[in-house]
Amino acid sequence: KYSLFLYELCLDYSGLGKTGWLTIGEIRYFMGLDDNEYSQFKFLNQHIIQKAVIEINEKSDLTIEPQFKCLGRR
Question: What predicted TM-score, i.e. pTM, was given to this entire model?
Answer without folding.
Answer: 0.77
